[in-house]
Amino acid sequence: MASTYSSTVPLTIIDLRQSLTHDAKRQKIHQDDYPSPPHCVGADITTAASDVDVVPLDIILENPEAAWDSADSDSHDDMTDVSSPTDEVHLLDEHRHLHHRDSTSSSSSGSSNNINMELESTGTAIEEPSSSEGFDLPKMILSSLKPVVEGAPKAIPTMVLYDDYGLQLFDQITYLQEYYLTQEEIEILERDADKIVDHIPDNSVVVELGAGSLRKTVLLLNALERKRKNIRYFALDLMLDELTKSLKSLGQFANVKTAGLWGTYDQGMAFVSSFGSEVPKTLLWLGSSLGNYTREEAKDFLASYRKSLNVGDNWIIGIDRRNDAQEITIAYNDPKGVTRDFVMNGLDHINVLLGQDFIDRQKFRYFAQYNVEVGRHEAYYQVKEAHELVYTAPSTGEEIRIALAQDELINVEYSYKWSPQESTQLFEDTEMTKVGQWTSSSNRYDLHLVQKTPFYFKTPVADEPLPSQDEWTELWKSWDLVTMTMIQHPTMLLEKPIALRHPFLFYLGHIPTFLDIQLSKALKEPFTEPSHFSVIFERGIDPDVEDPTQCHSHSEVPDSWPEVECIIAFRDRVRERLFKILNDPVSYPMTRRLSRIVFMAFEHEAMHLETIIYMLAQSPNTAPPPSIPAPWAVRKSAADDTFSSGEPLSPSTVSPATWFSINPAQLDKDIISLGHNDLESDDLTDAHKKDLTTAFGWDNEHPFVTSRPLPSTFEIQSRQVTNDEFLGYLKAVGVTNKTLQGNEKTPASWLIQDGDEVFVKSVYGPVPLEVSGVWPVSCSNIQATGYAAWLSTQQGAIYTLPTEHELSIAFKLRQATVPKTGLETYGFRQWYPTLDHQSLSTASSSSNSSHFSGPGGLWDWTSTTFAPLDKEGFKTSTLYPGYSTDFFDEKHMVVLGGSWATHPRIAERRSFRNWYQANYPFVFAGFRLVRRA
After folding, report:
1. Torsional class of 856: left (φ above 0), alpha (ψ -120 to 50), beta (otherwise)
2. Which class for 651: exposed (0-12), middle (13-18), buried (19 or more C-beta within 10 A)?
3. pLDDT at residue 555, as a whole number
């Protein structure tokens, strides 16, 4: 816990309102542009208390260590020179950002309630007691009460609620039982703070937007202190007095350094962007402050702040759900009347701000309602009787008259609520990858942890089978990140970490060559130069595991591969060719056949991206993904790309898998069916050649099969078997740690070090079982079958791998009954396999509390040999003849689902069928069991 605050140690407040003299790109901001509220007047850099240093930002930029008292300079990272800011920084219009009660703070952000900033309709120049070019609350009050458009609803800025007395009243509100938001957030933080801060790297900067009382924040700071992470914490707020009091209440920490930021959200955004890319950052936005904004405003705000973040930076956001209407209503209108007094006090504050008796609060009442359809709580001042407001300009005596009608509603606050689906869509729209979610026990409130990632795979739209240019761009970002940074040039290019496959260099040429060949064949155009790439890069090898001399036909393997620079230049020319085709509908009208080729090339590249990833996991030379630290690792220093495990790790644990009972006879046809209808030859018929909405599939997914006999009722494990569980099996059958090395039962995903210590291979290097024990085990089909046979003997029941039909039914059932959360364990949401414990509730479930994890983490092995779904209906692809038929050899087994490195277009298409040789041990494939009578 933090110690008692010592007044002998000065507290630093950085004044963001001062002009950023080093930055020509930012508008100059004067201190007078942001007048302090009445209780803060006079609190400036010259009159601050002796135990508080209010320092202009320019001084901090010149000397970052000035922000920290008794700081160890070795534990801090320098800011970049602000003369070279991130070009993406975009300062929003300050007038849009007012305060909102749910933020539990006195910051300056929130919805403007559609306030109009000018009184053009009156033709009158308004003189206020405190006017400026910037943040001008008095002018905003008058403008919002007299909208430009006559008859438009009147409003009052939410900011008026937060004077000294208002802040005291709001603090009382947060302790009310009815105001559940604060209590729910505290519950989450008390329970899960340690898990949350695991995602905050050592030597991070943590900036809290609208800090408020810090009653909840201290729970996170204490967790960071327990983890002994060196953190620089900045509390951002607009109210200097409250900011000072709150920071003093924290006390001092041994590892966490605290300071204040005096300014607005937008100034805070500029401050955040001033840190260099090597400094990891986490934003805190607690108290459901997102409710300040409309749906579109929230999206714009997150997108704007995202530009200030670097890849790998986090944002922890509290969001109140669309809960029971009565619960929300009473949360904002408590029986004791504290909320009523809080809102009505805003009218008294208006008179102080305007310097005259402008409003008589006795002529208004507090009116509140929850708008279920819109999903927001609405707070108003309701006019008791018709009357007129009169404002007199102090210097001229000119009057502004505002007529109010009886029962008229004047909005002062909106609080938007978000369903889980709306939150998920918000993060999808703003391309923020959700890496964690913690929910209160009542399921009313969530803390989301989202991250800016180097690329973002959006959920495909069902009726848009043609990948968009944006999708291609993101796929190329991922491909380039892996092939140009994780594969270290030139030393790794000819490396073959899996002897059965080509060296890495081959795939750099294979991907653009495949696309180029398909385009040239369809369009009857020449190959992109150098044209001989079509000879050496067209098709790779996939030899028989037991006899590598046996292999399907493949491209000629040259005596020496082309230079990588030549391959990259070729890649870029092919990419330009594709975009030229997509952008010229006159020369290249988009038919179903051309669209299919683009689809095939897209999924082909996505599948080979995963191939390279599982090859990289086998290499000891792989560089970890840049700027994406592993949650279990501690960054040694902000300037160091290496990681260490930090303090000793506690053994990982996971709850036993539950069993989910499914009776296929009770399910809809769409769920019990297999495949889908997409006959390649139909592309050229008049009825289909212009069809750009029907989903594509590979030849082995056709036809749509509904007549196959249904499986009997079966029980399937809720999740995949873990590394810990698999190790337990090996020990039970007599394989000791000493004999794991080289044992055929030992997964190729394991690395045995120091004779007997088990690690799991990853793109971050070997990961100890203390962390990876709860990950699903990646192994061959034969190894998975051995586990099932052992468990059958142990428990006297019949355990097997699921058939393709059974696993397909289970996955389709989950997809039909469980909404997406953004935490699906595929599509590079994280860079390692994890278990997914999403609920699946259905009438056929043996228990309403059963859990069934969906696709992701690892692919799922089945017991089904890879073959056509229906021999009569199967037609070999003419565009890619050997795609499936070369592997109908009785040696390849069907795998379904997807891994953490699988693109959503593949992982979310339930008809997609993957396959590998039963004894191939390197792929990202695990297993779950079926229990039979």
Report:
1. left
2. exposed
3. 77
Residue 881: burial class (beta carbons within 10 Å; 0-12, 13-18, 19+): exposed
Determine the residue type at 920.
Y
Tokens of 195: 């898990």
| Helix ranges restricted to H, 666-741 | 669-672, 723-732
pLDDT reported for residue 298: 96
pLDDT band at 211 (very low <50, low <70, confident <90, very high): confident
SS3 725: helix
CB-based contacts of 257, cutoff 8 Å, min separation 6: 68, 71, 76, 231, 232, 233
CB of 522 closer than 8 Å to CB of 594: yes
State the Cα angle at 618 between 613 and 623, rounded to 5°: 65
Hey, which bits of 784-929 come out as E strands?
798-800, 859-865, 892-896, 914-917, 925-926
Could you tell me which residues are beta bridge partners of residue 596?
none
Q: Which class does domain 11-82+91-95+168-325+419-451 fall in?
A: alpha beta
Residue 776 pLDDT > 70: yes
Residue 461 has pLDDT above 80, yes or no: yes
Contact 628, 453 (CB under 8 A): yes
d(C-alpha 450, C-alpha 265), whole Å = 19
Report the CATH fold assignment for 654-722+776-932.
Answer: paralog of FGE (formylglycine-generating enzyme) (3.90.1580)
Q: Tally Cβ neighbours within 10 Å of residue 662.
A: 24
Going by C-alpha positions, the residue among 406, 878, 534, 926 that lies closest to residue 682 is 878
Beta strands in 364-421 (DSSP E): 364-371, 376-383, 387-392, 399-404, 409-416
Instruction: Read off the pLDDT of residues 519-538 as tens digits, 9 standing for 90 and up.
Output: 999 999 999 999 999 999 98
pLDDT, tens digit (0-9, with 9 covering 90-100), for 236-261: 998 888 899 999 999 889 999 999 99
Summarize pLDDT for 5-18 with one digit per residue, the tens.
344 457 899 998 86
pLDDT at res. 49: 54
Distance of CA 590 to the CA centre of its chain: 33
Can you list the alpha helix ranges (DSSP code H) found in 742-886? Answer: 769-772, 781-795, 804-817, 882-885
Please give the C-alpha separations between residue 48 and each of 59, 65, 240, in angstroms, as whole numbers: 17, 20, 10
Instruction: Identify whether the C-beta of residue 812 lies closer than 8 Å to the C-beta of residue 855.
Output: no
Is pLDDT of 96 > 70? no
| pLDDT band per the 50, 70, 90 thresholds, residue 424 | very high
606, pLDDT greater than 60 = yes
Q: What is the pLDDT of residues 103-115, one digit of tens each?
A: 544 444 444 443 3
Tell me what pLDDT residue 132 has: 34
925 — pLDDT class (breaks 50, 70, 90)? very high
What pLDDT score does 33 carry? Answer: 32
Cis peptide bond N-terminal to 703, omega within 30: yes
Kindly list the domain boundaries of the chain, sorted by start residue. 11-82+91-95+168-325+419-451, 127-158+327-408, 469-618, 654-722+776-932
**Per-residue tokens: 391:** 């404002």
Average pLDDT across the chain, whole number: 85
| 248 touches 7 (CB < 8 A) | no
Q: Which fold does the domain 469-618 belong to in CATH?
A: Four Helix Bundle (Hemerythrin (Met), subunit A) (1.20.120)
Upper half-sphere CA count for residue 11 (Cβ side, 13 Å)? 29
Q: Give the three-state DSSP class for 463.
A: coil
Cα 109 to chain center, whole Å? 23
CA-based torsion, 403, 146, 371, 336: positive or negative: negative
Which distant-in-sequence residues (6+ apart) come within 8 Å of 279 by Cβ? 77, 79, 203, 204, 205, 638
Q: How far apart are CA 653 and CA 631, in angstroms?
A: 16
- Identify whether the C-beta of residue 828 lies closer than 8 Å to the C-beta of residue 455: yes
